[in-house]
Write a structure and sequence with these properties.
The complex is a heterodimer of chains A (600) and B (832). Chain A has 600 residues and is an alpha/beta fold. In chain A, the strands form 6 sheets. Chain A has a 7-stranded mixed β-sheet. In chain A, strand 3, helix 1 and strand 4 form a beta-alpha-beta unit. Helix content of chain B is 68%, strand content 0%. In chain B, helix 1 (3-16) runs parallel beside helix 4, helix 2 (28-42) packs parallel to helix 5 and helix 14 (232-249) packs parallel to helix 16. The chains are: A alpha/beta (600), B mainly alpha (832). Chains A and B meet through helix 4, helix 5, helix 10 and helix 11 of A and helix 2, helix 11, helix 15, helix 20 and helix 23 of B. Chain A: Belongs to the metallo-beta-lactamase superfamily. RNA-metabolizing metallo-beta-lactamase-like family. INTS11 subfamily. Chain A: One of its GO terms (molecular function) is hydrolase activity.
């Protein structure tokens, strides 16, 4: 039976780094190639040695698909393609291809900078890796090879994020990557058509959460920033260069405009321009409101947000600064934090998750006395706020997507085991489909029952209707014919047409059998006894005794001959066509029982 | 362990098994294990346990929990294993039967948590860490651990199954080598009981009717022969050889990849490598019986061996060459070409049928080409491959792929239909073509070779990745073209170069950035390889390529701008080598390009082009092309002033490298050794040159840049600056003269201020702005004094630590775990 196999190397019952292997109809696809930012050794990358034990990766994998530009989905890609040695095609959407190298480069710089690390991918490797990427458009069916095709759907979450349908023949899998079912300030909601895949692989970050209104969180955020600025304090918002930063920039820009605020807002590093350039370039990927207002005013041309210079951090008075990186683990955001941490009027707002081993993680866990270099202690007096703006579908959204796509099976990834378990039960109850949640390294096998379309010849169909069987769309119907496989398609035609098309002559197939019976009489007498016996039993059949001594019952022919070595034994030669297979078998078994004495 | 950590660890242990365990990040426990593992390696395990009784208490507390979480249980199993790695610590833990309870029947194996793959994996890891001494092995065997491990080989988790195999391999080899250190008996029945159980299990599984059991055993054996090369492996093999051999003679070979893997691992073992070994006929048989796809990896592995019987090697070569041979035969008329192999010794039927099938043709060719590339790239290949025939075959494949060749033979026609437009095969074939350029003694059909390459470079249908590989192959062949004895005609070379530059001109204008970038990279490689070749220089300079390259300095894509910078920087070298270039009117404008590159360094919004500029400047200076620059001192001074302001630390680092090269060259002019780290000669101080050099450095404002860089917010910049300053100091001060260096407070206010500022600034990673009046960086005497006075070694040690060494320290980790006790769940659930 055909099967689909799924093995997560990452994102199986965790949210560390996504990397999922899918085998479908002989094709092998890797979904995402993420990195775990919490480690600084080889454990940050998935263990690719499990992909194949025999042969080269490029020969084994048919393609790699990247759902979006977050590093937990694409961070290991240059390592995989340039250091591990995968040389095959990589697919992602156009915005992801544009933005991915910026984030990879940003991360590389921070990693190498912090630790002076050498065993890490280089700029050249990032570029070479990006050259292997084939960019795809939404809803464009891309033929990876003759059998394998992929198609991207809008996923919300971040600019360019996509869900991917992977199809081989009539079997298909949809991988959601990270998605968001509610629109936000700059992106729309995820959407997919009723594609009824054999398997939907869905993220489940907020598997048990029904998230509070985003409006409330936004109001809260603006209130906190406003209050701090009003009392003359400075607000630091550590962000990654692209993604949530743009969402928050639009939020503040609109608020500043409405409230006519004067305090400066800065965005650090030279990335602002490039980020905004991409948001302008890929305007079709943003939400409807931004697209509509684009003609009058581009939302990404900020009036209040200016580029930051290192010297501004010492300026007196209130200000808001967006600085990278987002976990306060190096660079400018950490430098500004050190300067401002001692003043209780200031505030740091952490809009995202921080891994252990970063200053961001420390202050979020409530630590207020931080050891710095040279045994100095930094006392954090500034306010520390955590506000999650990560854009994932909540439990309601996940159910909505399943309703939309109508999959035959669901597999959950990118979530915590306990929460997945809860959602799994809910999905199985509501949709009556099987739901799986493999851990990393565990293979889930899903048996598919692919329906294979077959064309029926008009002649055969007409013949069936002529004998009074009108087609009924709701009732399954048995039809007889010859199945022809030609040019990758199936056709059911009448046997005569099949012979004609294939240029073959008809052959009569007959089954034969020898039955030995004890009868010392002459052959023709034995034949007569057989005839009488059958005539008596098979009253509804035409049983004939031919002049040459043989007997026929329908197409079945019986001849009696003497045994070459034993004259007391007669051999009955029975033969029949395949149409009379049932009767032929019955007669054989009847004759094997011998002839009755009375017929003598 | 530091005192602070010693105080924190008991609290952490108590918290972990406490009623409100910390909602720590998933990496915390793993990092805690890493640290404890390092400690147990550094000091005797018993001491660690005695000094920190909280560790054993934690294990006991976890065992006492009614339903410990999978995370905590996994941690405890791994911790117990690594602590019990030493025999004394093992005995200490066993006083309370902790290990028996953790690894025995009544422990986690019997609990609900065993359903979690993480727990099973941790149990195996713990057992593996512990199984380094006989008591541990006895404990495991006594508690039925072997049966558990046998079962776990078939675990649904790949990670667990693989850990189980590794543990069995370790247990078998350890029990033999530990318990029978002299020589394990020549019969398994003399072996230790534990080893006998494992061998029996292997033998039974191999004879089992269950395919999965057979596969598990083959994997286990492959792992065993791969990692263990002791003589006893031969005894083991003698017991199973017949069974393994029987797999190969079955009509359809079971687990062919595993068999190939097993034989390959064995072939690398010194135990089996003797030519008379009965093992080799089995390898030959495998190479014959397995399909070419299955046998490919084995064949490559065999060909990499330096010790291997010749007939096996020939069989392996046959496996790899058969598809290439079939390609040649399929493409040629009957009797026109004899192919690569003698048909009388090989049966091409299987390969032909694979190549004629649409589904297998591309896979077989990609695999074969990949293997050939791997072999041809080896510097010492123990076998001679027929370079010329291979080249012809690869060229034929490339012709099939772009429709240049559609043969009439049935096989050829089928192959060409399958391969036309097949990117996968094109990529692999171009890779092999590139490495074949390095093969000596190839009888190369140069014209047809370049016809094919040019057809790929020209075709609008060429995929960007294939184009990149076409460029790579073309550059490799072009670079070795002038050296080819068979191809010395200048006009032919010129014709090829003209054609290549015509295509390059078109490709430099491609709308696709990947293509423009690969074109520029190709140009740079060509210049590097053929710069001294007259025909090349003339053709290049008379083409439009230099102008187009200059235009691409303003490309919208930063990657392309960076590659254009590199290419333009190399183009200047062409004109530098041949200033009297005969081509006029189109001569590359050196001054203009230098100015443009400086402009890019100061204004380009992206780091890549700026980094490329600084790298080119370093290259010029290093190679001694100083006549490109009117005044080197002035030039370096300007460049570093621009670089210092750069937001990209790698540009600033590049600035420092430029300074380093400048130093070396300035010293060289004074007759100093080239290496700045070379021992100092006392005569140098008295020379005029000494003063001159110092004055040059001061005039060029290098010291200000170097000292300020010590406080750079990016650590590698500070490190580099410190390295350079140390090197300069060693040039001005003999190492023994520094002993008497003065106290900074005695040498004047400026230097004392600098010393203080650097000490604080290197930690805070900032140099106070607007403080340049405190010390005169352009005053030679002050700088000489500063070099002699400031404690650069201390700074060097500080700067060598990673900038997040505090956050990554064990103390910080322990604090983070404690801080997470009872932390809000919201934070834990979030991600990016």
């Amino acid at each position: 039976m055909p099967e689909i196999k799924v093995t997560p190397l990452g994102a199986g019952q965790d949210v560390g780094r996504s990397c999922i292997l899918v085998s479908i109809a002989g094709k092998n696809v890797m979904l995402d190639c993420g990195m775990h930012m919490g480690y600084n050794d080889d454990r940050r990358f998935p263990d690719f040695s499990y992909i194949t034990q025999n042969g080269r990766l490029t020969d084994f994998l048919d393609c790699v698909i990247i759902s979006h530009f977050h590093l937990d989905h694409c961070g290991a890609l240059p390592y995989f393609s340039e250091m591990v040695g995968y040389d095959g095609p990589i697919y992602m959407t156009h915005p992801t291809k544009a933005i991915c190298p910026i984030l990879l480069e940003d991360y590389r710089k921070i990693t190498v900078d912090k630790k002076g690390e050498t065993n890490f991918f280089t700029s050249q490797m990032i570029k070479d890796c990006m050259k292997k990427v084939v960019a795809v458009h939404l809803h464009q069916t891309v033929q990876v090879d003759e059998e394998l095709e992929i198609k991207a759907y809008y996923a919300g979450h971040v600019l360019g994020a996509a869900m991917f349908q992977i199809k081989v023949g009539c079997e298909s899998v949809v991988y959601t990557g990270d998605y968001n079912m509610t629109p936000d300030r700059h992106l729309g909601a995820a959407w997919i058509d009723k594609c009824r895949p054999d398997l939907l692989i869905s993220e489940s970050t907020y598997a048990t959460t029904i998230r509070d209104s985003k409006r409330c969180r936004e109001r809260d955020f603006l209130k906190k920033v406003h209050e701090t600025v009003e009392r003359g304090g400075k607000v630091l918002i550590p962000v990654f260069a692209l993604g949530r930063a743009q969402e928050l920039c639009i939020l503040l820009e609109t608020f500043w405009e409405r409230m006519n605020l004067k305090a400066p807002i800065y965005f650090s590093t030279g990335l602002t321009e490039k980020a905004n350039h991409y948001y302008k370039l890929f305007i079709t990927w943003t939400n409807q409101k931004i697209r509509k207002t684009f003609v009058q005013r581009n939302m990404f041309e900020f009036k209040h947000i200016k580029a930051f210079d290192r010297a501004y951090a010492d300026n007196p008075g209130p200000m808001v600064v967006f600085a990278t990186p987002g976990m306060l683990h190096a660079g400018q955001s950490l430098q500004i934090f050190r300067k401002w941490a001692g003043n209780e009027k200031n505030m740091v707002i952490m809009p995202g998750y921080c891994v252990q081993g970063t200053v961001g993680h420390k202050i979020l866990s409530g630590q207020r006395k931080l050891e710095m270099e040279g045994r100095q202690i930094l006392e954090v007096k500034m306010q520390v706020e955590y506000m999650s703006f990560s854009a994932h579908a909540d439990a309601k959204g996940i159910m909505q997507l399943i309703r939309q796509a109508e999959p035959r099976n669901v597999l959950l990834v990118h979530g915590e085991a306990k929460k997945m378990e809860f959602l799994k039960q809910k999905i199985e109850q509501e949709f009556h489909v099987s739901c799986y949640m493999p851990a990393n390294g565990e293979t889930t096998t899903i048996f598919t029952n692919p329906s294979i379309p077959v064309d029926i010849s008009l002649g055969l169909l007409k013949r069936e209707t002529a004998i009074g069987l009108l087609p009924d769309a709701k009732k399954p119907k048995l039809m007889h014919g010859t199945l022809i496989m030609k040019d990758n398609s199936f056709r059911l035609v009448s046997p005569e047409q099949a012979l004609k098309e294939l240029g073959l002559a008809e052959h009569q197939l007959r089954f034969t059998c020898r039955v030995h019976i004890q009868d010392p009489r002459k052959e023709h007498e034995t034949g007569l006894r057989v005839y009488n016996h059958l005539k008596a039993i098979l009253k509804d059949y035409s049983v004939q005794h031919l002049p040459d001594g043989s007997i026929t019952v329908e197409s079945i022919l019986i001849q009696a001959t003497a045994h070459s070595e034993d004259q007391g034994t007669k051999v009955l030669l029975v033969s029949w066509t395949y149409q009379d297979e049932e009767l032929g078998s019955y007669l054989t078994s009847l004759l094997k029982k011998g002839l009755p004495q009375s017929t003598a | 362990m530091s005192r602070e950590c010693g105080l924190l660890l008991p609290r952490v242990c108590a918290a972990l098994a406490g009623p409100r365990p910390p909602a720590a990040a998933d990496t915390c426990l793993q990092k805690l294990l890493d640290w404890l593992g390092e400690l147990s390696e550094a000091e005797p395990g018993l001491k660690l346990l005695q000094d920190n009784p909280c560790l054993a208490e934690l294990l006991a507390a976890v065992l006492a929990l009614p339903e410990p979480g999978a995370g905590l249980l996994s941690f405890a199993l791994r911790l117990a294993g690594l602590l019990a790695a030493s025999e004394s610590a093992f005995q200490h833990l066993q006083q309370e039967q902790l290990l028996a309870r953790l690894f025995g029947e009544a422990g986690p194996r019997a609990g609900a948590a065993w359903a979690d793959a993480a727990v099973r994996g941790a149990w195996l890891d713990g057992a593996r860490s512990m199984a380094l001494h006989e008591p541990a092995l006895r404990l495991l065997c006594a508690h039925g651990a072997l049966d558990v491990i046998f079962t776990l080989q078939g675990d649904p988790s790949l990670f667990v199954a693989s850990a189980a195999r590794r543990l069995l391999v370790h247990t078998l080899s350890f029990s033999l080598e530990y318990e029978m250190p002299k020589a394990p008996g020549t019969r398994v029945c003399y072996w230790p009981p534990c080893a006998q159980v494992i061998v029996k299990h292997i033998e039974d599984s191999l004879q089992s009717s269950s395919v999965s059991h057979v596969k598990q055993s083959l994997k286990l054996l492959a792992g065993l022969f791969g990692s263990c090369h002791a003589p006893w492996t031969e005894v083991l093999w003698s017991g199973i050889a017949k069974q393994v051999q029987s797999f190969l003679t079955e009509e359809s070979v079971q687990a062919p990849h595993l068999l190939a893997d097993l034989l390959l691992n064995m072939s690398r073992s010194p135990v089996f490598c003797e030519p008379e070994s009965s093992f080799w006929p089995l390898v030959t048989s495998a190479l014959e019986h397995l399909t070419p796809v299955q046998a490919g990896p084995l064949a490559v592995g065999i060909l990499r061996l330096h010790k291997c019987p010749q007939d096996v090697r020939i069989q392996a070569v046959t496996v790899l060459l058969q598809p290439m041979d079939c390609i040649l035969r399929a493409a040629s008329q009957p009797l026109e070409y004899s192919g690569l192999l003698d048909e009388s010794v090989t049966d091409p039927a299987t390969v032909e049928s694979l190549l004629s099938s649409k589904s297998s043709c591309a896979s077989l060719l990609c695999q074969t080409l990949g293997h050939l590339e791997e072999l041809l790239s080896l510097s010492h290949l123990p076998v001679d491959l027929p370079g010329t025939s291979l080249l012809r075959s690869v060229m034929t494949i490339l012709r099939f792929c772009n429709g240049l060749l559609i043969p009439t033979s049935p096989l050829g026609s089928k192959i060409s239909q399958t391969l036309i437009g097949c990117f996968r095969v094109q990529r692999s074939a171009l890779d092999v073509l590139a490495v074949l350029s390095e093969q000596k003694g190839c009888d190369v059909p140069v014209e047809s070779l370049f016809d094919i390459l040019l057809s790929y470079l020209e075709s609008p249908n060429t995929n960007p990745m294939v184009l990149k590989k076409s460029f790579q192959a073309t550059s490799k062949w072009l670079v070795c073209l002038p050296e080819m004895s068979c191809f010395s005609s200048q006009w032919q070379i010129k014709k090829i170069l003209q054609d290549v530059f015509l295509v390059l001109q078109k490709r430099l204008c491609s709308p696709c950035w990947e293509v423009r970038d690969s074109s520029l990279e190709f140009l740079t490689v060509l210049i590097n390889g053929l710069r001294d070749h007259d025909e090349f220089r003339q053709t290049l300079l008379s083409s439009e390529v230099p102008r187009l390259t200059e235009d691409l300095l303003g490309d919208p894509e930063s990657y392309v701008r960076a590659s254009a910078v590199t290419a333009a920087g190399h183009l200047i070298l062409v004109t530098y080598v041949a200033p009297e270039s005969p081509v006029t009117g189109n001569q590359y404008n050196k001054e203009n390009t230098v100015a443009k590159l400086q402009e890019i360094l100061s204004r380009d919004p992206e780091g890549f082009p700026r980094r490329a500029v600084i790298n080119i400047f370093i290259k010029w200076l290093r190679k001694g092309y100083t006549s490109l620059l009117q005044d080197t001192e002035q030039f370096v001074s300007e460049v570093i002033q621009t670089a210092e302001r750069d937001l990209d630390w790698e540009v600033r680092l590049g600035g420092l490298e430029l300074v380093e090269v400048f130093f070396v060259q300035t010293f060289c002019r004074c007759g100093r050794p080239k290496c700045p780290y070379a021992p100092f000669s006392p005569e140098f101080t008295s020379s005029v040159c000494h003063n001159e050099s110092l004055q040059v450095f001061c005039r060029a404002k290098l010291f200000g840049f170097l000292f300020r860089s010590l406080c750079d917010c990016d650590r590698p910049v500070g490190q580099k600056a410190c390295d350079i300053l140390l090197a300069i100091r060693s040039s001005f001060y003999p190492s023994n003269s520094l002993k008497d260096s003065q106290d900074p407070e005695e040498v004047g206010h400026g230097i004392a201020w600098l010393q203080r500022t650097l000490r604080q600034g290197s930690l805070a990673q900032t140099f106070p702005a607007g403080s340049s009046h405190e010390v005169d960086f352009q005053d030679p005497e002050s700088m000489l004094l500063a070099l002699g006075t400031i404690d650069l070694e201390e700074l060097h040690d500080d700067l060598n630590k990673s900038s997040d060494h505090v956050e990554k320290s064990p103390q910080s980790l322990l604090q983070d775990i404690l801080a997470a006790v009872g932390a809000a769940e919201d934070n834990e659930a979030d991600c990016y």
